[in-house]
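Escalation from tier 1.

The customer reports that the assembly of two entities below gives different structure tokens on two consecutive runs. Tier 1 could not reproduce it. I'm attaching the input and our single run for tier 2 to review.
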Amino acid sequence: DTAVSQTPKYLVTQMGNDKSIKCEQNLGHDTMYWYKQDSKKFLKIMFSYNNKELIINETVPNRFSPKSPDKAHLNLHINSLELGDSAVYFCASSQTSGVGNEQFFGPGTRLTVL
Amino acid sequence: QKEVEQDPGPLSVPEGAIVSLNCTYSNSAFQYFMWYRQYSRKGPELLMYTYSSGNKEDGRFTAQVDKSSKYISLFIRDSQPSDSATYLCAIRPSGGYQKVTFGTGTKLQVIP
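Tier 1 run:
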């Protein structure tokens, strides 16, 4: 199936731990994103990579470090997890040459920090 | 002032009703307007996009943009229980590498 996939789907961990979320897209897109969706459903961009280059870096604690090994993959590593990091994290991809930069989202990773 | 304002609802309508979902935005630099649908525990999926004032129709869905009022709408005709979801408006300026700003979403429930 052509899609944006994320692993894991659920992540439950203790405060202070370090965790990673992985994302892969096989749509041939050149741009990938990480979004955070809080409990009130507000979807906020965190990072964006175009052809492995960081192009959007919103005000995010430096405990969050994205990494793009190639244009089909974008990972998110989070150090020293805090309670406030509990949210659903969505990966998305798009083709910048597209008219509206339509973004295709993955299924999300539900992170719960205890 | 938030860049995009959207009534969070919830909005509850009977099956077959016409639904109107709305967003206002503050920055006239925004040129592309999108509507995403998000089912519970799923990722958002693009429903419609437009980049001009006026109406764009796709089946039972019509997206309307009024740039002079900075107002966008999504109309759903003959609403179905399967339309029950959260609808997010999204906007971005023109040009590459511009971030998309999402509204907070309106939760819609269509009652059979």
